[in-house]
Amino acid sequence: MNLQAAFNPADWSVLSGALRLKPMAQRDRQRSLSARALLDDETCIALLDQLGPVIGSPTRGITASLLAKRFSFLATGACLYAMSVCDQGLLLSLDDCVIEYGHDDGLWTSSMPLPDRAPQVYAAGEREAWRASIVEGLFAGLLAPLWQTFNRVSGISRRILWENTAVRVYSLYEKRMSKVEDPLIRLRHEADFDWLLQEAAPQLFGLDYNPLRHFRRPPTQLEEGKSIRFRRTCCFYYEATEPAEYCSTCPLLRPRKCR
Q1: Cis-peptide, bond into residue 243, ω within 30° of zero
Q2: Chain segment 188-245, per-residue pLDDT in tens
Q3: pTM for the complete prediction?
Q4: From residue 8, how far is each of 88, 129, 149, 228 by CA, in Å?
Q5: How far apart are CA 36 and CA 11, in angstroms?
Q6: Alpha-carbon torsion 19, 150, 244, 99, what sign?
């Protein structure tokens, strides 16, 4: 069984469409590097310096933040949607993943290429251990080493890189998965999200704290009757846009009286 055949057509449509999952054979060979290659400082610096002018970033640190934000979307989207909605295990690792960095006309075109093989399944009664292994591979195995390298070569705060990751996970569960109507799937993805926020151990993230819990700021009530869960840190997206554009949850937009 190959990657696509493991999912029903509706799920694959979401994974390969909005979430940009695709078989490795379809990778953008001109604009991609193996994830492990980016652990080399010189390779990482060369990529960031090449990518900066393409995305309009004025510094290496801002480039690292925005690339991390994009890769977080791709990696967590494919992995956690497959886990919580499809009940399929995509094992992401430094050796199996490539980082695409295509960016044209002001927009990212990058995808999440993965080896064309069947996802991991679990035996009866073993879903919790299976879930923990999937999450540990994604965060501690793949993202933590990359964010350490990004921090080391660019000076960008690790807190910013991890909040970039956290907000992608929040959006995935609260917006994307909330559209799933099947009540059994809803129960599963809600239980997974609660576990990620409340119970997932710090070592699953390669850290001494759970970043999904740490960056979960309470929503701010606005005068218009809306509420927004503003970030704790700024990703600096506005620094790479002209005129400046801000993320909807940017802490710089938080009402001053609430800061």
Answers
A1: yes
A2: 999 999 999 999 999 999 999 999 999 998 888 887 778 888 899 999 999 998 889 9
A3: 0.95
A4: 11, 24, 37, 34
A5: 29
A6: negative
